[in-house]
């Protein structure tokens, strides 16, 4: 079996909040190490089914063995696809409505830990960062070919980096001399673009730029917004969506989309009855995000930024 060590974050909270029905149809949009999928499958009866998406072949190969019993029992379908194709891929399996959808966003531990994938600023490797290894756009291409203005835009928007312009200038100067090929080279350029005093606080100096590149390479925010809209339209009455985010941009997007679906438009004062066409289709299951408990935080340092938000179709 392919090695795929991954500690699932907010495992019980995310699945419990789906309110699993034994005969329900569920979707795990981010299969990864299969932790959430296994927890869902354990609660399904003979008529229940889970469709699990992942664009990373490593995850699919691993779960052919890891979740073999449910595959053999025909209770699980693995789908190699970006979850942006959620509706289309489910339709190919004759599915037009579901009882629950789960998203565990961000990069799985194996993607971070396998140096050759080029996600980590702590290990020197070729700049890559593709979740789908068959796509053309890589971090190396962005760093070497995108304009100074485009680099400033993504480092600011997706990384919320303060020293964006000086970092982009360092990259621009270096690539005129030679191609920037590795994560190690990029880390040194980022450090050179950040004042020494600022480098000494707030975690690894390359963290924000690497996050920005990963989001840009995989179009993570655009894909999430599109997919989440599809998931909301697929829900049966009382169906739920659980979304785990690991950074503020994703969390803000999920929070905004859920708020739009669960808030009435501004109504005239003194309106005695809300018109039926304005009655809300969805409700927030938790007003504030659910976060990991102390035991989970101590056991898994990657859980620290995790937030879970849940919405239900009423």
Automatic annotation (TrEMBL):
Q: Which UniProt keywords apply?
A: Cytoplasm, Methyltransferase, rRNA processing, S-adenosyl-L-methionine, Transferase
> What is this enzyme's EC?
2.1.1.199
Record family assignment: Belongs to the methyltransferase superfamily. RsmH family.
Q: Which one Pfam family would you cite for this protein?
A: Methyltransf_5
What Gene3D superfamilies does UniProt report for this protein, alphabetically? Answer: Putative methyltransferase TM0872, insert domain (1.10.150.170), Vaccinia Virus protein VP39 (3.40.50.150)
Query: What gene does the UniProt entry assign to this protein?
Result: rsmH
In Swiss-Prot or TrEMBL terms, this protein is called Ribosomal RNA small subunit methyltransferase H
Any one Gene Ontology cellular component term annotated for this protein: cytoplasm
- Please cite one Gene Ontology biological process associated with this protein: rRNA base methylation
What does the UniProt record say this protein does? Specifically methylates the N4 position of cytidine in position 1402 (C1402) of 16S rRNA.
Q: Which reaction does it catalyse?
A: cytidine(1402) in 16S rRNA + S-adenosyl-L-methionine = N(4)-methylcytidine(1402) in 16S rRNA + S-adenosyl-L-homocysteine + H(+)
Kindly list the positions annotated as binding S-adenosyl-L-methionine: 34-36, 54, 83, 104, 111
- Protein location: Cytoplasm
Q: Which HAMAP family match?
A: 16SrRNA_methyltr_H
Keyword rRNA processing included in the entry's annotation: yes
Lineage of producing organism: Bacteria, Bacillati, Bacillota, Bacilli, Lactobacillales
Keyword Cytoplasm annotated: yes
Recorded hits in PANTHER family, A to Z, give: 12S RRNA N4-METHYLCYTIDINE METHYLTRANSFERASE (PTHR11265:SF0), S-ADENOSYL-METHYLTRANSFERASE MRAW (PTHR11265)
Give the primary localization class.
cytoplasm
Q: Which GO terms describe its molecular function?
A: rRNA (cytosine-N4-)-methyltransferase activity
Instruction: Identify the InterPro entries for this entry.
Output: RsmH (IPR002903), SAM-dep_MeTrfase_MraW_recog (IPR023397), SAM-dependent_MTases_sf (IPR029063)
User: Superkingdom, according to UniProt?
Assistant: Bacteria
């Amino acid at each position: 079996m392919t090695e795929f060590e991954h500690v699932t974050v907010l495992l019980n909270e995310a699945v419990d909040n789906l309110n699993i029905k034994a005969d329900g149809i569920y979707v795990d949009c981010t299969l990864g190490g299969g932790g959430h999928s296994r927890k869902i499958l354990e609660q399904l009866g003979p008529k229940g089914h889970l469709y699990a998406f992942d664009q990373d072949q490593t995850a699919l190969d691993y779960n052919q063995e890891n979740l073999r019993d449910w595959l053999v029992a025909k209770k699980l379908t693995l789908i190699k696809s970006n979850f942006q194709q959620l509706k289309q891929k489910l339709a190919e399996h004759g599915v037009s409505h579901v009882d629950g959808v789960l998203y565990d966003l961000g990069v799985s531990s194996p993607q971070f830990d396998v140096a050759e994938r080029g996600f980590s600023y702590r290990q020197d490797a070729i700049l890559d960062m593709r979740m789908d290894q068959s796509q053309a756009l890589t971090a190396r291409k962005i760093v070497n070919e995108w304009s100074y203005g485009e680099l400033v835009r993504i480092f600011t928007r997706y990384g919320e980096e303060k020293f964006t312009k000086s970092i982009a200038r360092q990259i621009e100067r270096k690539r005129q001399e030679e191609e920037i090929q590795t994560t190690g080279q990029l880390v040194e350029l980022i450090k050179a673009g950040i004042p020494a005093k600022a480098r000494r606080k707030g975690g690894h100096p390359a963290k924000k730029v690497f996050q920005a590149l990963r989001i840009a390479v995989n179009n993570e925010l655009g894909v999430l917004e599109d997919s989440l809209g599809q998931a909301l339209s697929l829900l049966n009455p009382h169906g739920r969506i659980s979304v785990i985010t690991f950074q503020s941009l994703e969390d803000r997007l999920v929070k905004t989309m859920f708020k739009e679906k669960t808030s009435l438009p501004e109504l005239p004062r003194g309106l005695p009855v809300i018109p039926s066409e304005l009655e809300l289709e969805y409700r927030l299951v938790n007003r504030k995000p659910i976060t990991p408990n102390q035991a989970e935080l101590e056991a898994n340092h990657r859980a620290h930024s995790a937030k879970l938000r849940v919405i239900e179709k009423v």
